[in-house]
Design a protein that fits this description.
Helix content: 10-25%
Strand order of the largest sheet: 1-10-11-12-13-14-15-2-3-4-5-6-7-8-9
Structural class: alpha+beta
Shape: elongated
Distance between the termini: 69 Å
Oligomer: single chain
Number of strands: 25
Radius of gyration: 26 Å
Length: 505
């Protein structure tokens, strides 16, 4: 079994199943071959007249461990439908690890047959871009890899469908039990036309509160691949090799929380998907005193925090220009309501906990002013809590383990700082790491006559100016806007300034 191909297709399938759904809803018998073992057809569901529109989220797991996600959104289009999919996955089998991430966009007709497409996929760090359109003799494709571009014709007779169309195809004719449907799909990983068979096995569930589904199998892989689709055409579950790898539909909020946590933890499977490269790279980021960055493709409905040491401009067209530092610390007193807010306990920031208060007293011995306290607490957390990809929801759990991701560091620091009477925010956004680009990250801001950015993961007080704040607060709702940005925005350095070198007298 070619594990890379299985990983790629499995990541892609939530999109692939959707295209099939659309195709089934509108395709005629000329686009597929039907075989039946029974003379009398058993129709398991009323034929679909339209595909399910809207967005869907999926979790991908291997041996019960969640290792990836996929997102699918289907909307109407003048030519028929637009199908957009994003996803990322990392899996290990017998010590052999593969990573895959991708973004795909397909335009399909009312019968779900392919009209045009554009996608970008990265497998084990190697990126390929593919675009093309349907022509009378098949599919014209342009393949771009690093330093190489090729154009070719994939010959095909009859309709060709995108991978998202595989699961729903039978439901367009009512999902006839024991029938096998055959269709041609665009294999975007191998860049070829592939024939796929889908067999309807029967109906399952529907009693005792269980969701009624149609159970099918296809031959996408050289091992068993089972699919369960509900009566509206939505994929509920996919299983490769009897559950070794599974994709399951998830509630939107659950999936969004998982994506944000994974990006902040910088987990391997989401790094390629969430990383924002910058060309040319930023040299000596720790020596910068000013950085001006333009973010592209930011949805208009997403609010970007301003104030403190960050200035925000929105010229339009999905662009946001941020300048750090955009203002001095200032000397204005913090309003009483804000003091109370940023000194209070939350579900995951615990300044009122006895263990946190006792630890704060041990760290801050004697009389300590706010600025000195900020520095001492941040460096204590950076020194005593090891970096790890796991997130500890509670700062008490972080202390017990002695390790955690950037969120764990920021929550523990915020708990200690608030316990010391220092108003402190939990913030998230981007940070620049050499040789990687901008990655998603969490840190803090503490008030001492003005807001000071504090990174208790790296032990930086103040944090360097490559810290770009995109959200304030540590609750899932407060961090939810990041979901609209992860894997979608671009970054361009507009201006930067370094410390003046010290000249000998």
């Amino acid at each position: 079994m070619d594990i890379a191909r299985v990983f790629f297709y499995f990541r892609l399938r939530p999109l692939g199943w959707f295209a099939i759904l659309l195709f089934v809803a509108f395709a005629g018998d000329s686009a597929c071959t039907l075989r039946s073992a029974h003379a009398a057809a058993t129709v398991l569901a009323a034929p679909l007249t339209a595909p399910p529109l809207g967005e869907r989220w999926f979790g991908i797991s291997m041996n019960g461990e969640k290792t990836g996600f996929a997102y699918l959104n289907v909307t109407t289009h003048p030519q028929g439908y637009e199908i957009v999919s994003e996803g990322s996955v990392r899996m290990t089998v017998l010590g052999f690890s593969r990573e895959a991430s991708g973004r795909e966009r397909y335009i399909v007709g009312k019968d779900l047959s392919l009209r045009s497409f554009a996608l970008e996929q990265t497998i084990d760090g190697t990126t390929m871009r593919l675009r093309g359109e349907a022509v009378p003799k098949g599919i014209n494709v342009v393949v771009e890899t690093k330093g190489n571009r090729k154009e070719r014709l994939l010959r095909a007779e009859g309709a060709v469908f995108p991978p998202p169309a595989v699961n729903i195809y039978p439901l367009l004719s009512g999902a006839i039990k024991d029938k096998t449907y055959q269709l041609q799909i665009l294999d975007v990983e191998a860049v070829k036309i592939k024939k796929v068979k889908v067999t309807v096995l029967g109906a399952e569930g529907g009693g005792g509160g269980m969701q009624q589904t149609v159970h099918m199998q296809n031959d996408l892989y050289p091992v068993s691949n089972d699919v369960w689709v509900d009566m509206a055409g939505n994929t509920v579950r996919e299983s490769v090799r009897d559950g070794l790898i599974e994709t399951r539909a998830e509630p939107r909020q659950l999936a969004m929380n998982f994506l944000v946590e994974a990006a902040m933890s910088k987990k391997d499977f989401v790094l390629d998907f969430s990383r924002i490269p910058v060309t040319p790279p930023i040299s000596r980021p720790q020596d910068l005193v000013m950085l001006k960055v333009e973010l592209g493709e930011v949805p208009e409905g997403v609010s970007v925090p301003a104030g403190g040491t960050q200035r925000v401009e929105r010229p339009g067209g999905g662009k946001v220009i941020l300048t750090m530092p955009g203002a001095g610390q200032g000397g204005a007193a913090l309003p009483e309501a804000e003091q109370e807010k940023y000194l209070s306990a939350t579900e995951r920031i615990l300044p009122d906990n006895g263990n946190i208060a006792a630890l704060k007293d041990r760290i801050l011995t004697g009389e300590t002013g706010p600025e000195a306290g900020i520095d001492i607490l941040a460096k204590w957390v950076a020194t005593n809590i090891k970096e790890a990809v796991l997130d500890s929801v509670s700062p008490l759990e972080t202390l017990e383990r002695g390790e955690g991701n950037c969120q764990a560091h920021a929550r523990l620091y915020a708990s200690l700082a608030r316990a010391a009477g220092i108003p402190t925010k939990f913030v998230s956004g981007l940070v620049y790491l050499p040789d990687q680009g901008f990655l998603y990250h969490s840190w803090a801001e503490s008030y001492a006559g003005g807001w000071i950015p504090v990174d208790p993961t790296f032990g930086q007080v103040p944090a360097d100016v490559t810290h770009i704040k995109l959200a304030e607060g540590d609750s899932p709702g407060e961090m939810a806007p990041l979901v609209a940005l992860i894997g979608r925005i671009s970054a361009r350095v507009v201006d930067k300034r370094y410390h003046e070198p010290v000249r000998p007298e």
